[in-house]
Design a protein that fits this description.
By secondary structure, the protein is mainly beta. 8% of the residues lie in helices and 51% in strands. A hairpin with a 6-residue loop joins β2 and β3.
Length: 227
């Protein structure tokens, strides 16, 4: 099962007090008539609370990194530059092909960061005042890896946006500003703003157990249609 991780404190607060209301229908026959009546009952079940230690791994909460060992991706309008040979740049599409830590800075005016690494690779993206906009696709597309960690750099302001309808470019029907086919964790103390004007604005995580968490200061999603 794949996981999406965001905000351990918020998750703990929600799971501790969340109630599931499950309607159950039971058919009972009577001796007075041949009719069958349905009785609907409501059963309330308390969801067990989880501590951060139970719900999240140490790597999920790890926000430290060594800048001297990290590679850089510098966004420059309609293209980018990188210090790593594992980063392929084709116009405004930047593809990360191998495990490692990548510090992303600058502005990408109409493009996408794609993670397409090995199935056992762990990728950490450090967003440091990164501004990524796509007119018809995801700003960050995690296509293949074992785990992807998006860390918001301390004191930084980051923005991801889609400004139009999502185009179909592969079999995954990408339709979200952050679209992940991998395990995904968002952490860090910086801020992240996600905006979309597309009518299908939602982050979709296929075949995964969702565990939302983002231990940061600010995480907001804005949609023209969904608010």
């Amino acid at each position: 099962m794949k996981r999406f991780n965001i905000n351990p404190k918020l998750l703990a607060a929600l799971t501790a007090g969340t109630l599931l209301l499950i309607p159950l229908s039971a058919c009972t026959s009577t001796t007075e008539t041949s009719n069958t009546t349905e009785e609907t009952q409501s059963v309330t079940e308390t969801v067990p609370s989880l501590t951060s230690e139970e719900a999240f791994t140490g790597k999920d909460l790890e926000i430290g990194y060594d800048e001297n060992e990290a590679d850089t991706i510098t966004l420059k309008g309609s293209t980018a530059e990188s210090s790593s040979s594992s980063v392929n740049i084709s116009g405004s599409v930047i593809t990360i092909k191998a495990k490692g830590t990548y510090i992303i800075t600058g502005t990408l005016e109409d493009g996408c960061i794609v993670v397409d690494a090995g199935s056992s690779d762990e990728i950490r993206l450090i967003l440091k005042d990164a501004d990524i906009t796509s007119s018809d696709y995801a700003a960050i597309y995690c296509l293949n890896a074992d785990n992807v960690y998006i860390t918001l750099g301390d004191g930084t302001t980051n923005r991801l946006a889609n400004t139009g309808e999502f185009a179909s470019k592969d079999e995954n029907s990408v339709d979200a500003v952050i679209f992940a086919k991998t395990d995904l964790t968002i952490n860090g103390s910086g801020s992240l703003e996600i905006n979309s004007t597309a009518h299908r604005n939602r982050r979709r995580y296929h075949h995964r157990k969702r565990k939302g968490r983002h231990p940061g200061k600010r995480f907001c999603c804005n949609s023209e249609c969904n608010g």
